[in-house]
Every structure is written in C-alpha cells, then in structure tokens.
Amino acid sequence: MPYPSGLRFDWQKQHTREVLQLIELLDPDVLHIEYLQPAEVALHAQSLPVTATFHDVSQRIALGAARKASGWRAIISWRDYLATRLLEWRLVRRAQHIFVFSERDQQFLASRRGNASVVRIGVDTLASPWIPDDFATCLFAGALWRAPNQLSVEFLVREVMPHVWRRNPAVRLRIVGARPPESLRVLAGDPRVELISDVPDLDIEFARASLNLAPSMVPAGVLLKALRAMSAGAPVVLNENAAAPIAGLVDGLNAVVASTGEQFAEAIVMLLDDPDRLALLGANGRELVARNYSWVACVADYVTRFDELARVRS
Fold first, then answer.
1. Residue 302: exposed, middle, or buried by beta-carbon count in 10 A (0-12, 13-18, 19+)?
2. Which member of 58, 111, 275, 305 has the greatest number of CB atoms within 10 A?
3. pTM of the entire predicted model
C-alpha cells in the first residue's frame, strides 16, 4: 500500500535517504522517530533499537476525517486512513518503545502491545502574559492544512459563531494557521471572521486574544495550541476531546469545557462578559502548565528510557 498522501507531502523519499546516510555516518545507539511522517526510516534501519513519540494516534485522526468526508474526497480519505493504519501499526511493532502524551493513547496502543508509556509535553511558560486587545476577539490557531484543524474551523464557523452572534453581534473570530485550503477561505466569508495564514509570532496571538478556542473534532492527543495559550495565562475553551488528555485540568478552574455548538457559544458569551473570570481562568491555566508540563519532567522521562535501550544494545 502506498505511503499516506498527507504524510508523504511532509516527508519525501529524499528525506529518508538523507537520514539513512546520517545513521550510517553517526552510528547512533537509538533511533528516535517524532510523529509518524518519518516512519519509513525506522522500517529501513533494521539494525537499530527504535523509539517513537506519537503526539496523537494518527489512524484515529484519519478515521475521523474519513467519516466526515463526502464525494470524491471520501475515497481519498478512506484510502489514506487504511494506509495510515497499516503504517502506524508497522511502526508500533518495529519500535522497542512508544512515548505518548495521554492515557487514552497509551490504552489504545496497549491493545496491541504493552510498550507505550505516557510522558508530558515540555512547554515554556511565556514571558509575555495575557494582555488582550479587547474583550470581543476569539482565536483559533493551528496548522490549517491538517484535516483535524479544518474540521475544528468548520465547527466554529458553522455551529458556534451563529449562536454567539445572536447574543453578541460584535464578537469576532480570528483564525490563524499555515496553508489554509480554499474551502476555508470561502467559509470565512463573514466580515467578523478573519483568516490569516502567516503571523510573525503565534505566542503573541495567544496572548492578545480575548479568548482562545481549542475544540478537537477527533480524539487527538494533547493539543499543543491549548497548552501554549494556557502558558501565556490566556483563557481557553475546549471540548471533551481536547480536554481529556490534559493532566490535571478541571472544568471551570483551568479552562472551560463545552461539547455542542450551543454550549460552546454559551461559554464564549458568558466569559467575554466577565473580564475578571477570564483573567482568573487564564491564571489558573498558566499555573497548571507550569506545574504539569515542565521541560525537566519531560526530559527525565525520555532520558531514563533511552539509557535503558542503550545499555541493552551495548
């Protein structure tokens, strides 16, 4: 089966050849794969112990995208799902250990083999705290070429913002992310929806928005966009898919969790009308990230496992 088209766009065969040449030159003790894109390197480098970090389980995201696709896109999406599923399980079988960022992903992989462990993402606590430009701007940020983020934008524009505007027509939605497809540009037709594909500093966007929105329409791993916003002390609204993997998150304390479009809209309107609640929510979220997602804890987890694998090889 061919490589999944979305992964091949990011990781070309030339990249694999170059990495294999580096492996031959450096003779490393362990080969570590980050994300699924470079999986074919691990499948070719058979002499090395392999570890991998799954930021999420790619086959579940591909399945969610396929189920929502229609027309000719459905054919491509289902083909990509099958190719992604095959590639991911091949890497899981090949790797000596898999790192994941949530208990949900660890349990999913454990159904096939028990060599996955949960580690925390390392996130810097931003020096520039939350200072919103106003109390009427909501932000969604993400790589807009990725299907899960496109689904999130569609959810916000079609199912959330109409409910918000009925109660507060002045609220704006700012969508920021690289390589947005034409379908999203067409979707952002209302003048209150702003689509920007290139910004100089995404962290400034998080810190200046009144409210950061981070729904996930598929059961992904920990959303870095949510943690980065929280690290700036910026208030965040998530849905259950996005909130569940975040260690220690309490609905209403560190962030607000909403499910349906109407519930999301209710949370947005309520919070924008209460600047003090926004500030408290953001401060609690910032404290959560500093406590549970430090780089010290993240690095310690990796070093322990790498040392074990290196000793086995020697």
1. middle
2. 58
3. 0.85
